[in-house]
Design goal:
CATH topology of the largest domain: Rossmann fold
Number of domains: 2
Keywords: Glycosyltransferase, Transferase
Distance between the termini: 13 Å
Strand order of the largest sheet: 3-2-1-4-5-8-9
Number of helices: 23
Largest sheet: 7 strands, parallel
Organism: Stylosanthes guianensis
GO molecular function, one term: isoflavone 7-O-glucosyltransferase activity
CATH class of the largest domain: Alpha Beta
Enzyme class: transferase
CATH superfamily of the largest domain: Glycogen Phosphorylase B
Oligomer: single chain
Family: Belongs to the UDP-glycosyltransferase family.
Strand content: 5-15%
Length: 501
């Protein structure tokens, strides 16, 4: 018996499987890196393009003596009729390629399932969009943790709508009649049009979400990039409503991206730059450093969003009319109808009132710059967490996925957000018919950046949450304790399996 104890290695091997979109890859990889910091042996399985978005971070962690690596699996592009290099979802993914990428992921299931066994995983942590991994974990007799991207409130609201169907009392989508979300810790109201379409009327995505929910119930538990001081009431509510285990481990970005190299590389493929390109890359920093503290509005709608020219025009006019300096991240394909944005850029550059970043932006570094005073956001969860970390209040502009639920957390619960007034949920990659006019945008910016009592109080609350976020990941903090407790549970499960064998 004594020799058996001596032979038992309680070091945990965890395999992480992120989904193939930047907004899902980023939190999964950061969580993997948190576990590596705490002595866990970590392997991240990813296709070449997905791996390129985070490999530099993994390499830096490995050089720091942490047990972390990437296992690259070749994406079957040719088999599904895709050109090489097209294997992730983003704002520029052509509609006809979406089903092909999904098919490619399906073809990889057997190979990845085999890897779980070959790499001798003690636990797998997989994205919510891989429900099949619940079966893989059950077959291997190991725990599966599901990463649920988004807030506890969003998933609680989703459960409320599915359970009680309050929207069914409203006869038509095209009405401003509001309904309350039953059973939640706060009184929250929405309209039917603000709900995802698959909740309003069943479709193929409804079936996928049901499959995901089923896999969640069959998992050992769920992990969230959140922290108790941010939405503890909803963490408690969610665990009770779902009857499952759950751990908030965030803010994971703040935990593992603590130096400039980590922050600059996060979520971006490594590209060697020189000369003029490199100067342009760091031009944003020089511009921000020339601005007074808390004077600049940062505007970004994430990696998956795009707008028609009619909406871009309203945003541009609003930014100029707001009277505040601004930094706006725009996509290279945003202005397909002409040179409108290029002319706008020349104008605001000449007046020194605005700065446009084309394509990817080093958001972590930008948000922590003292010149940034607030942000206009699509309510994607990664950006919300990064803004909370930086102590910034937000103008909320939700579009798709769970973003309208996230808006409720910011505006109605935490009171660190100003709603721009978007009325209609839309499908990813579809523009929808709604155009938010410049007057609404100007008013929201004015409240966010203004000097009135409500504005000042909102920004104070945001700073308090930033302080709470820092405490959550310190020794003895809520998220720090959750990570240690979870690792200890996984070690106990490993010991139980060893004893049974």
């Amino acid at each position: 018996m004594e020799s058996a104890k001596e032979e038992f290695d309680d070091k945990i091997k965890i395999i992480f499987l992120p989904f193939v979109s930047t907004s899902h890859i980023i939190p999964m990889v950061d969580i993997a890196r948190v576990f590596a910091v705490h002595g866990v042996d970590v392997t991240i399985i990813a296709s070449p393009v997905a791996a390129s978005l985070f490999q530099s971070s993994v390499d830096r962690d490995s050089s720091r003596g942490r047990s972390i690596r990437t296992h690259v699996v070749k994406f079957p592009a040719a088999e599904v009729g895709l050109p090489d290099g097209v294997e992730t979802f983003n704002a520029d993914t052509a509609p006809d390629m979406i089903a092909k990428i999904a098919k490619g992921l399906q073809l990889l299931e057997k190979e990845i399932d085999k890897l779980f066994e070959e790499l001798e995983a003690d636990c797998i942590v997989t994205d919510m969009f891989y429900p099949w991994t619940a079966n893989a974990a059950a077959r291997l007799g190991i725990p599966r943790l599901i990463l649920l991207v988004g807030s506890y409130l969003a998933h609680s609201a989703l459960h409320s709508v599915k359970t009680y169907g309050p929207h069914k009392d409203i006869e038509s989508d095209h009405t401003n009649d509001k309904f309350a979300l039953p059973g939640l810790p706060h009184h929250l109201e929405m309209t039917r049009l603000q709900l995802p379409d698959w909740l309003r009327k069943p479709n193929g995505y409804t079936y996928l979400m049901e499959t995901i929910r089923d896999s969640e119930r069959r998992s050992y538990g769920a992990v969230f990039d959140s922290f108790y001081e941010l939405e503890g009431e909803y963490q408690d509510h969610y665990k009770k409503a779902m009857g499952t285990k759950s751990w908030s481990l965030g803010p994971v970005s703040m935990w593992v991206n603590q130096d400039a190299a980590d922050k600059a590389a996060r979520g971006h493929a490594k590209v060697e730059q020189r000369g003029k390109e490199q100067e342009e890359e760091y031009g944003w920093l020089k511009w921000l450093n020339s601005k007074p503290e808390s004077s600049v509005l940062y505007v970004s709608f994430g990696s998956m969003s795009k707008f028609p020219s009619s909406q871009l025009f309203e945003i541009a006019q609003a930014l100029e009319d707001s009277g505040h300096d601004f930094m706006w991240v725009v996509k290279k394909k945003d202005d397909e109808d002409g040179t409108f944005l290029e002319e706008f850029e020349k104008r605001v550059k000449a007046s020194n009132k605005g700065y446009l970043i084309w394509g990817w932006a080093p958001q972590l570094l930008i948000l922590e710059n003292p010149a940034i005073g607030g942000i206009v956001t699509h309510c994607g969860w990664n950006t919300i967490m990064e803004s909370v970390n930086a102590g910034l209040a937000m103008v909320t502009w939700p579009m798709f996925a769970e973003q309208f639920f996230n808006e409720k957390l910011l505006v109605d619960v935490l009171k660190i957000g100003v709603a721009v007034g978007v009325k209609e949920w839309r499908k990813w990659q579809e523009f929808g018919e709604e155009v938010v006019k410049k007057d609404k945008i100007v008013n929201a910016i004015g409240l966010l950046m203004g000097d009135g009592e409500e504005s000042v109080e909102m920004r104070r609350r945001a700073r308090e949450l930033s302080d709470a976020a820092k405490r959550a990941i310190e020794v003895g903090g809520s998220s720090h304790n959750n990570v240690l407790d979870l690792i200890q549970e996984l070690k106990s499960l490993k010991l139980d399996r060893a004893n049974r064998n």
